[in-house]
Amino acid sequence: MIWAAQRLAVSLLLVWCVASIVFLAIHLVPGDPAELLLSSGGVAPDPAAVAELRERLGLDRPLLDQYVAFLAGLPRGDLGASLVDDYPVLDEILLRLPRTLELIGAGALLAVLIGIPAGTRAALHRGGAFDRFASALAALLLAVPVFVVGTLLVLVFAQMLRWMPAGGYVPLAQDPGRHLLLLSLPALAIGKGLVAVVFRMTRTAVLDMLARDHVRTARAKGLPPGRILRRHVVRNALTPVLTVLALQMGSLLGGTVLVEYVFNWPGLSTPLLRAVEARDYPMVVGIVLVISALFVLLNLVMDLIYALLDPRVRRA
């Protein structure tokens, strides 16, 4: 319990550090939100109107006062309101966050369903044709940027073959079939790198387990190969694979911005990009804070699971 409490305290400290850095960084970006909101057709706005809007939005207050007010609102879940349309930041995030998480979850599911079996097979047939082909394909998937893969998927499956729509979104409750169809291409685009990482990690972990003494002992006792593979090889190899999977899932939160833009998926990327362009401080800080908190929470959960699987971690 003491170890878990320490990890929780460190995680909260990390979230606070990220929130502070993002808050200060976005305020250092050149440009006045009030001027941007009042500008029209390239005509400079009236200075009096700009000053009045700055006062109404609270932008005329000292930066320290704005920072303290921001921190004071966090325990209440108050992330402020958008400077553009005065819409609560938290409501916007709660509306779009499930769509982004669904996209990440679908990509992670593909990585598990493809990467683990493929990595296991490649390790069992090390140096064979499948191993060489899968390893080369994994290297290629890691090298190609996600926006290139997304564009190629749209070009091939939507434009040339016309098997799938190029993008869009339909709620699951409204049309489950079309929802899954629209989800497939962006999930494949965002999950391609994770599939390669899980494949390579699984292959390495399985090869390491196959060389362990307890596996050789199980073979010497005449245990069935399938039982040895399930209970002594794959089961033990999954621990580092799950750790890497959790870390990579956190990094997918950043990759969703490009994928959602390419496939017109209404997640967090649209309000984030719009907020950065408009210098919408509360919206940018709120979205980045939520993404960072999810990343830290995911790693905290994996640390706890890892500690349950390996008691030596709690003593480290």
Automatic annotation (TrEMBL):
Pfam annotation, one family: BPD_transp_1_N
Principal location: membrane
Topological relation to the membrane, as annotated: Multi-pass membrane protein
Keyword Nucleotide-binding on entry: no
Annotated compartments: Cell membrane
Gene3D superfamilies listed in its UniProt record: MetI-like (1.10.3720.10)
Annotated TM spans: 103-124, 136-160, 180-199, 237-263, 283-309
Ranges of residues in domain ABC transmembrane type-1: 97-306
Superkingdom of this protein's organism: Bacteria
Keyword vocabulary terms for this entry: Cell membrane, Membrane, Transmembrane, Transmembrane helix, Transport
PANTHER family listed in its UniProt record: DIPEPTIDE TRANSPORT SYSTEM PERMEASE PROTEIN DPPB-RELATED (PTHR43163), PEPTIDE ABC TRANSPORTER PERMEASE PROTEIN (PTHR43163:SF3)
Similarity comment: family membership: Belongs to the binding-protein-dependent transport system permease family.
Annotated protein name in UniProt: Glutathione ABC transporter permease GsiC
